[in-house]
Each structure stands twice: as C-alpha cells, then as structure tokens.
Design brief:
By secondary structure, the chain is mainly β. The chain folds into 2 domains: about 110 residues, Immunoglobulin-like (Sandwich); about 120 residues, Immunoglobulin-like (Sandwich). It is built from 1 helix and 20 strands. Strand 14 and strand 15 form a beta hairpin. The radius of gyration is 38 Å and the shape is rod-shaped. The N terminus is likely disordered.
Length: about 280
C-alpha cells in the first residue's frame, strides 16, 4: 500500500506546470468630444419667445445657453451667439460669459443684446456655437418673434403750441420742421418699427373768457399733405406713410383763423395726434 501511494505522488509532480508572474500595460486613447449646446433660453423662455419693442429706445434681450462637453466643462473654450433676421441686430454676434456650473460636463453661458425700436418686426434666429480647446464645435438654433410697434412722438415746447398774439380776422401759421431739437417748430418722429399714418382730433372748440373759436378754424398739415380742419371726431392722414427708421421725421404745421368779432381773451384746446 505504501508503494502505490508513492508512485502516484511522483506522477502528479511530473504533470504540474511551473508557475511564474507576468504583467501587461493597459492603454487607451480618449479622443476629444465636440461640445453640444443643449438648449437656448431667449428673454426668459425656451419656447416661442417674443420680444416687444420699446418705443423710441432700445430693449435688452437676455440669452442663456447650457453647453455640455464630455471631456469636462473646462474643455469649453467659448460660446458665441449670432442673431439674424429681417433687421440687422447691431450687437450680433454676442460673446457669452461662463456662468453657473451645472455638472462636471455642463455649464451655463449667459449674455444679452439690444434691439432698436426701429428694427424690423418678424422672426429672428439665434444660432449659438460652442467651441472647445481643440477647435471642435457644436451649435444649436432657436427663434424669437420681434413684435410690431406703432408709435410717434410730437416735438413741441412744454406741451404747448403757441400762436402768440392774433387779431380778429387774422390768420397765423406755426410752421413745423424736421428737427426734434427745435421745439417751437412742431415735428413728429416715428418711434416704432412700422410704417405709420397719423390720426388727429381735438377735445373741443378753443375756449377762453367764456367765449369760443370754432375748432374747425384750426387746421393741421403733416409733411406737405395739405391742411385739414380739426374736429372732435378723429380723422386720419392716410397718405403720410412715414417709414420706420432711427430718425424718421415729418414736419407738422398748424394754422389758425380767428373770426372777426372774437372777444379779447386767451383761447386754448387740446389736440391729440397718434400713430396708426
């Protein structure tokens, strides 16, 4: 029995392999990933954004974009947004500023641009392009609607058009000009982004000292379209067609006839001129 066991052990020793340690290098090349613009928020919304002009001045429009780079948000080198549409946006393109870090790969970028009151109404496109440190790029587009604005400004001295001293039977004209800096010469300016005509009316007859001058004796002319008598019923000068623009002006002339027999007094009324 002892002999058999010894033979078996010897056989097992012969078939067992000789064990050694070894090593291998593991290698992988991680390539750069192009950044992606995940969303664009215009004027506080990412769905059907609308912007309304501010008559006679500019309106600031906010922008925000979330950008992801799978190599890490630190690989994002910059974000620019270009605005195109029926009008030229002077602030385009907008260089966005790095803002809130959302995660290891995502960061928010913010900026803004101004729209002028005379910029054409319609649909504008915002294209935001993100770049990384190896010049890879990704972009995204969103649109917004710039609304139409119909408005005018009347340039007069302290809100008063003064015919000064007149005599009964006299006719006097206050001539306008195309200069918003000469308030003694009435001017209207289109301060919206649509072609306008004018609608005009008076609150009533000129009154003073218990007497009146009929409102029909007061006439108005826009540009050179001809004088028309005022009344308490609104009338429209439909041939003016004053275009939108940074300085779109029309002179406004007023003419008053004082009837013979009018009593001595200071007479006044209120006229309203609006864009239509």
């Amino acid at each position: 029995m002892k002999r058999r066991l010894g033979i078996l052990v010897a056989v097992l020793a012969l078939v067992l392999p000789f064990v050694m340690s070894d090593s291998a290098t593991i290698q992988v090349t991680v390539q750069g990933a192009a950044p992606t613009v995940d969303n664009i928020v215009i004027a506080g919304t990412d769905v059907a954004a609308t912007v309304s002009p501010s008559a006679g001045t500019t309106v600031s429009v906010s922008l925000a974009a979330e950008v992801t780079d799978n190599n890490g948000h630190g690989d994002i080198s910059g974000v620019q947004c270009e605005i195109t549409g029926p009008g030229t946006v002077q602030d385009s393109p907008v260089t966005m500023s790095a803002g809130t870090v959302i995660g290891s790969t995502t960061r928010e970028y913010t900026g803004s641009f101004d729209m002028d009151f005379y910029d054409a109404a319609g649909t504008y496109t915002v294209n935001c392009s993100a770049s990384d440190t190896t010049a890879r790029k990704g972009d995204r587009q969103e649109t917004f609607t710039y609304n139409s604005e119909t408005a005018l400004e009347l340039d007069i001295d302290n809100g008063t058009i003064d015919f000064s001293n007149m005599i009964p039977g006299g006719v006097s004209t206050v001539d306008g000009d195309q200069n918003m800096g000469t308030s003694s010469a009435p001017t209207i300016q289109n301060i919206g982004n649509a072609v306008i005509d004018t609608q005009y009316s008076a609150s009533g007859d000129l009154s003073g000292g218990g007497n009146t001058i009929p409102i029909g004796n007061l006439e108005v002319q826009f540009a050179s379209e001809g004088f028309n008598a005022l009344s308490t019923t609104a009338q429209t000068e439909s041939d003016l067609d004053l275009a939108a623009g940074s300085s779109s002006l029309a002179k406004t002339d007023l003419r008053l006839t004082v009837p013979t027999g009018t009593s001595e007094a200071t007479y006044s009324t209120t006229i309203t001129i609006s864009a239509t």
